[in-house]
Design the sequence.
């Protein structure tokens, strides 16, 4: 398959913090509409990897390409790429001083330069997509974790990104709130949004992922379809990691 | 103190003085807030030289008695050919002092804004300046209100130092009346006026704090 089928290419990413090498050369490619789920033990660099893609963390070595344009080493053009690469965080990071709808609006106004009417309409549309339209005028502190995370997904969606990075989006939520967020993510995946998801939700990985990447020690240990990774893991290590979730594979 | 003295002599003089005091405050406070904000942003987000300049400026102002700064501006600068009116010298001195202290309240407030706010703004493609302007400062300034109102109250009171460089403001106007009539109640009257100004500020700042409080968070 030709390279230009990939919308996102990640090549040989290395990152070291002090003495610890967090990422030891990670490469993978993403096609439009893919949902790639990263699994693996904590502290293996999965979140750092996501942050290297939109340069919130600058990798020591390696390159990232979006539509064949280099995202790494692009100087101030990074703000252009970040509009195309949405991100959803474990702790939501909603803007505390803005209502839900204004959280979604602000980048449309300030970054995309939309008119206030246009931005409001777009923001309400995205909130509707995640079932939060009725909460548009509430502040983050008035929302449950699940609601806040759905607003933050709407905020990412409003920018009409080519790909969205989800950094442990449900790790701060209890099981019930986790479900409402996963449902929104599943809907997005089915609608063809390209997504990279770091998560421990095996049920989601199994039912939604087009590819699962198992990482350990800063490297990709194994990658494949959910069938390959969950049902027939190639390595003992993957098998034992997956085994811990055996009661938790339904969706 | 008889009514005639109060109504025909003291109050008109104090009124004139009060107008000068208000003028000093109105000309100084907005710039004190603006430059205080810029100094704080410069210290938190500025590069090496911007940070160094802001630190140096704030350190210099903190280390220099305000009265000395006013003397330098009014009596000192003419020796290098710069002549400032007493009003302008006072306003410049007050802006320097007010902004330096304000910057510390604002800097503390900026540092208290959670790191994730900046990260989320960057991830949406905002430039650093956009993120500071639209995300960090709106939150920081709310938290700085109690400190800033304190500093505003100091400004009301140290505006009386303008008298030392010949500007007849509220305290100065009262002192002149006292020198002429030896009526010590004059100072009580002045005190009452300052108390009123400070009370208005305190009430106003509390109302502002309440109005701007973010629903669902502390303070509301």
Sequence:
């Amino acid at each position: 398959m030709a390279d230009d089928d990939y919308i996102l290419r990640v090549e040989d990413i290395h990152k070291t913090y002090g003495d610890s090498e967090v990422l030891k050369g990670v490469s993978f490619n993403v096609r439009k509409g893919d949902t790639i789920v990263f699994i693996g033990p904590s502290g293996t660099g999965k979140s750092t990897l996501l942050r290297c893609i939109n340069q919130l963390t600058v990798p020591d070595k390696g390159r990232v390409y979006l539509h064949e344009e280099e995202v790494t080493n692009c100087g101030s053009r990074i703000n252009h790429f970040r509009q195309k690469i949405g991100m959803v965080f474990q702790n939501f990071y909603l803007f505390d001083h803005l209502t839900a709808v204004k959280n979604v609006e602000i980048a449309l106004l300030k970054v995309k330069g939309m008119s206030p009417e246009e931005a409001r309409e777009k923001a309400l549309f995205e909130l509707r997509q995640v079932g939060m339209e009725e909460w548009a005028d509430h502040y983050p502190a008035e929302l449950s974790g699940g609601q806040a995370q759905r607003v933050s997904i709407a905020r990412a969606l409003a920018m009409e990104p080519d790909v969205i990075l989800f950094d442990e989006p449900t790790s701060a939520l209890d099981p019930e709130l986790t479900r409402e967020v996963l449902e929104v993510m599943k809907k997005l995946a089915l609608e063809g949004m390209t997504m990279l998801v770091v998560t421990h939700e095996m049920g989601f990985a199994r039912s939604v992922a087009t590819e699962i990447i198992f990482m350990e020690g800063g490297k990709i240990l194994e990658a494949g379809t959910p069938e390959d990774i969950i049902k027939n893991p190639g390595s003992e290590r993957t098998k034992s990691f997956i085994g811990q979730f055996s009661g938790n594979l339904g969706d | 103190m008889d009514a005639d003295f109060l109504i025909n002599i003291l109050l008109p003089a104090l009124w004139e003085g009060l107008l000068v005091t208000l003028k000093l405050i109105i000309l100084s406070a907005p710039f004190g807030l603006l430059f205080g904000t810029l100094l704080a942003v410069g210290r938190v987000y500025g590069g090496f030289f911007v940070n160094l300049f802001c630190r140096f400026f704030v350190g210099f102002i903190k280390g220099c008695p305000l009265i000395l700064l006013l003397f330098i501006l009014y009596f000192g600068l003419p020796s290098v050919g710069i002549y400032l009116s007493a009003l302008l010298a006072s306003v410049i001195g007050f802006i320097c002092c007010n902004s330096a202290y304000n910057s510390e309240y604002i800097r503390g407030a900026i540092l208290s804004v959670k790191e994730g706010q900046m990260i989320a703004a960057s991830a949406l493609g905002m430039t650093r300046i956009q993120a500071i302007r639209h995300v960090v400062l709106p939150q920081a300034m709310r938290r700085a209100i109690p400190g800033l109102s304190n500093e505003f109250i100091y400004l009301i009171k140290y505006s009386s130092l303008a008298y030392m460089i010949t500007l007849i403001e509220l305290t100065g106007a009262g002192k002149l009346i006292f020198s002429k009539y030896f009526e010590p109640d004059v100072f009580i009257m002045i005190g009452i006026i300052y108390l009123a100004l400070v009370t208005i500020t305190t009430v106003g700042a509390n109302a502002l704090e309440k109005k701007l409080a973010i629903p669902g968070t502390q303070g509301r």
Q: What stands out?
A: Strands of chain A lie at 6-17, 20-31, 35-39, 61-66, 69-70, 85-88, 163-167, 195-198, 211-216, 219-224. The mean pLDDT of chain A is 93. Chain A touches chain B through 30 residues (CB under 8 Å). The radius of gyration of chain A is 18 Å.
